[in-house]
Task: structure prediction
Amino acid sequence: MGVFKGKVAIVTGGARGIGEATVKQLLSEGSKVAVFDLFPEGMERRFNDFEENILEVTVDIRSLRHVEEAVEIVLEKFKKIDILINNAGILMDHLIEEMTEEEWDTVIDVNMKGSFNCCKAIIPHMKSQDYGKIVMISSLAALGTKGRVNYAAAKAGIQGMTRSLALELGPFGIYVNAVAPGYIETEMSKVSEANASKRGIGDFSQFKKAMIEKNPIRKVGKPEDVANVIGFLASDKADYVTGQIIYVSGSPGA
Result:
């Protein structure tokens, strides 16, 4: 019997990277999963072995109205929502002198406001059943990183949201935790490194090698490494864990 048998989960930004790895894990452990993504890119086809248990919903999480409409679609199909994984994120790297107001707003809106909108839309349904697991995705960047003042601010804000919501929602059987990945090898990270080099933030040509050398366990992370921790926090195995920020970085420090 799967860990998530009988559960219904929503994964934002579930079409690629950490989100896709999380969707795969949830499905394989028996959950029904709704993928909220601006570009779902055929998730149902990619997971056709689970076609009865997956639903892709095109949604812009920056809009509370869009999220609320998407939540209703999930409830119509699956009847409840047990788990929310706030994974959707975006990078727009620039040193502050060159960072535009649009780049600041977009990164804050997708990463932090999007998480707020999803929580706001879903929490009433979790309260009605006295049960819920919410996993936010922060980042090691929350501790500070060059050229990402927008992203660092958003991911630090998510940590504050996590602790505050854990205090608010614990009495209703709703657990809220966050996972903060370090360097994870994804398509988004590769594109970000290339863009950062072009924008004069630094020479990222040897970035992966440098991260491996810096890391005590001498390797970089994969999406599945993060998905494994998300899966634990979303499961009933974590029923005495709430308000925590768990770094998945292969290192005790930045």
Helices lie at 17-28, 43-46, 64-78, 101-128, 149-169, 187-198, 207-214, 223-234. The mean pLDDT is 91.
